[in-house]
Amino acid sequence: MTAHIVAAVLALMAGGVALSVQKGGALHRGSGLVFVVTMVIMAATGAALAAFIPERLSVVAGGLTLYLVVTSLLTVRPPPLEDRSIHWLALAVGVGVALLGVTFGIEALVREEGQLDGFPAPLYFIFASVSAFGALADLRMLRSRPLSGHRRIARHLWRMCLALFIATASFFLGQAQVFPEALRHFALLSVPVAAVLLIMGYWLVRVLWLEPRRARAAPPGD
Question: Are 138 and 89 in contact (CB under 8 A)?
């Protein structure tokens, strides 16, 4: 439990730094690496602890977070082109998380209260859908040439930011009891969670639309 909490705090701090500083710089790369390592520890320990409670939604969320972080890292630090086995392994994890989410979601649906471990079925299906979307994108990438340019950056961006969003929501909203009572207001604790989504949206618009448009509009030779 201690390792999970410490890793979560460090991951949130490192993720905040990585989002705030100049992209591609030394500080961005360094904080990004710290974010990856601590997120892997947090997600793995969180999923393992949740399996014993049991809290199966956290198992799915932990698996999805782990999958998103690893595949995001592989996007900017890929293995040699001749060895894509790690990508296929990541794809298998994504498919596994999706199937697990669907299984738990169906189990929640067939129960009289429509919940499993206190969580409604739609939450399980949401996590499953995100994992399935990521796995389909992985399959498409593996069947074509490696990503480059703005598409490569966008893939890295949405996966890393979504993993940070899950961690932020789990900490600020899922563990509200650790904050002083004066701060335990949903609207207040939702601010950092919403901020991650807004920042992700800003960078996706910039990477996928603004920068390509600016590049097309630039005079030849610039």
Answer: no
Helices 149-172, 2-20: inter-axial angle, 10-degree rounding:
140
Tally of domains within the chain:
1
Angle CA 173–72–125, to nearest 5: 50
Q: Quick one: DSSP state of residue 84? A: -
E strands along the chain, which residues? Answer: 115-116, 119-120
The amino acid at residue 151 is R
**The domain containing residue 103 runs over which residues?**
2-217
What predicted TM-score, i.e. pTM, was given to this entire model?
0.89
Reply yes or no on whether the pLDDT at 97 is more than 70.
yes
Do 131 and 101 meet the contact criterion of CB atoms below 8 Å apart? yes
Length of the chain counted residue by residue? 222
Q: Which two tokens stand for residue 196?
A: 């991650």
Residues 149-176: what's their mean pLDDT? 90
Residue 108 lies in a domain: yes
Q: Is residue 222 part of a domain?
A: no
Question: Is residue 75 in some structural domain?
Answer: yes
Q: Which residue has the higher pLDDT, 219 or 186?
A: 186
